[in-house]
Design a protein that fits this description.
This protein is 35% helix and 27% strand. Helix 5 runs parallel beside helix 6.
Amino acid sequence: MKQTVLRQYARLIARTGVNIQKGQDVIITCDLDQPKFVEKLVDECYKAGARKVKVEFDYQPLEKLHVRHQSVTTMSKVEEWEKVRYEHYIETLPCRIYLVSEDPDGLKGINQGKVSKARQKRYPIVKPYIDKMENKYQWCIAAVPGAAWAKKLFPELPKGKAIEKLWEAILFTSRVTDDPVAEWDSHNKDLHDRCEYLNKLGIKELHYKGENGTDLTVGMIEQAEFKGGGDTSLQGIFFNPNIPTEECFISPMRGKAEGIVYATKPLSYRGELIENFSVRFKNGKAVEVKAERNQSLLEQMISMDEGAAYLGECALVPVNSPISESGMLFYETLFDENAACHLALGMGFADTIKGFENMTLEECRELGINDSMIHVDFMIGYEGLDIDALTRDGKTVPIFRKGKWAF
């Protein structure tokens, strides 16, 4: 891959992704797969005005060792120095960049029950810190190729060529063109205009109907609105949380979902794949899940806490998005969620409430925004999915037909 193109991508993440302001700190979380690109990204962060850039590396084999050898008590303990670090983050609000590249099957065989117990014990301690930072800082999730990930997508190619092929796919779907900033400005405008149309409808419910058996109705919060593309932090800074992104999304009313929905793509969760699954909702809650692969992991997921079995997001993505038209299954939610309509179990987004900046997080949740320690997207869109909006004035408006926008 040309180094000039990778430099453009790094600049896009630093300036259009998190939009670093002069004097801000930056934390980059990544795996060990592309250190040379991380070097370019750090350089671009400093050129954008960062005061200090810190890189935190993850490595799946080490995570497996920690889970194998540590007790649940040790894994769940929040050390005093961690609490001090959280307080520092609340005070300084550093930009966060997450580079994903991990093996979709990289944690296969890990003791998932042990991981669940540790996270359930740890989360109530860290949650107050997380809530204090909600919507206040800029963040961006982007991707770089990992060798194992690339070989999963292109098993017939040698490792080097598979990585190159994955680089090409990442850059194409992330709109890294001759002028990626202008391309993203145009893309954000299109998503904004679609959200504006949806918000003017006054949607009370969305009805999903598919030839595969999907038949689900989801209720909306009256004060909620669709959002898409870039976002603005409570500090007044515009940023793009996901590179790439194709979705118009909203957080639905907790407790208002009835019916069944079938996933149309595998879900990579905690380093393992859940495949060919369905979720049945009653009174807003997932009361039954079935999966051909890793059903027990899916059951663990919706029992992580009270909110894990409720919906936190409804996202609309046409099947003629660039990612979908690539014909690739990425086995990575960042990409696969932008190839198809999807739902998310768990935490909802307070910033989808109109006027959220003048409300507390608790007030947003009282309106119906779901709260949970998880937020897991799963894909439900395909060429056979129709979506209708039932408006508050009694109209039925087509939103999707055969997987594509109906307007």
